[in-house]
Write a structure and sequence with these properties.
InterPro entries: EamA_dom, EmrE-like, WAT1-related. It is a multi-pass membrane protein. Helix content is 83%, strand content 0%. It has 2 domains: 73 residues; 68 residues.
């Protein structure tokens, strides 16, 4: 949120963040993989996976997070992060056929309950803030009328 106030171009920030992350991964990759064969680019599913992951999982996600922060504040994206655990558990079960245990179901219910409680509370807070702003505006208008 602070970065968005100082540097308002959210798409450039996203690009710079992705480039710096890529540079860091490159440095770690060079230090771990010394063979040239490991660095050869092949047109296969592995390359498609890397491109998809880089474009959608990182780039688009950062843009959406920046947009949400500018619209609703920095708390909203962090509240929706637990949903990733739920989606991962469901996809793991559907695609890989793993079992879902009672603990996973109870954890999912707690996450969803906490998320909806937060959203309900945030909605009430926004209503109270809007009502207080309306009252303050009416008082300002009334003071101006009395003074003129």
């Amino acid at each position: 949120a602070r970065l968005a106030k100082v540097f308002p171009s959210k798409y450039l920030v996203t690009t710079l963040t992705c480039l710096l992350g890529s540079l860091q991964c490159f440095v770690v990759g060079i230090s771990l993989g010394h063979s040239r064969a490991e660095w050869r680019i092949k047109w296969d599913l592995q390359l498609l996976t890397v491109v998809y992951s880089g474009v959608f999982n990182t780039g688009v996600t950062y843009v959406i997070i920046c947009w949400v922060i500018s619209r609703r504040g920095p708390m909203y994206p962090s509240m929706f992060s637990p949903l990733l655990l739920i989606i991962t558990t469901a996809m793991d079960s559907l695609l890989l056929g793993t079992s879902i245990y009672l603990g996973s179901v109870l954890g999912t219910m707690l996450i969803i309950g906490g998320l909806y409680a937060f959203l309900w509370g945030k909605g009430k807070e926004l209503q109270l803030t809007a009502a207080a702003a309306a009252v303050a505006q009416k008082q300002t208008v009334a003071r101006r009328r009395r003074g003129s």
